[in-house]
Amino acid sequence: MERTEALKLLKEYNKEPFHIQHALTVEAVMGWYAEKLGYGAEKEFWRTAGLLHDLDFEMYPEQHCVKESEIMTDLGLDPRLIHAVASHGYGICSDVRPEHEMEKVLFAADELTGLIGAAIKMRPSKSTKDLEVSSLKKKFKDKKFAAGCSRQVIRDGAEMLGWELEKLMEDTIQAMREYEDEIIAAMEQEA
After folding, report:
1. Which residues of the chain have pLDDT under 50?
2. Residue 38: domain span
3. Beta-bridge partners for 90
4. Is the pTM of the predicted complex or chain greater than 0.70?
């Protein structure tokens, strides 16, 4: 699926700027990880999975991961893509287990980008560019901060990948930092 088609599909089911920005963020982070982990040839596939991972969330929050699988199946999309987006909700709203490294990254990074996004909103700069892992770790330990971001999902994701939690945090901050300006520009065009 070409990016223009994927973005059009995303916007068909998502109107809230928050959901669009989250999708663009996870798309960018997934592309960054594809390069870093040696999957450069599959970078666009990784990005598409990131862009569409919450396709159904805004319209069908009670059927998250189930409805998007139905939508994607009806459109005849790649079964690998359908499996990937369904697996990011494993143990929460889906019984589809992340198997491929890409799916494990999506599972871990999705929730973590939300926590990082909440953390930067509290900073004077409103940016990842000056966010340190030590600051994020403090926010992570504060159960009241961004309470909707599951720390357990983030921990489970790091464990699935065989990574230290700090490495996952550091790399995801770096990925978001590299694409921050691009995402801000895209959101300004949306407005």
Report:
1. none
2. 3-190
3. 94
4. yes
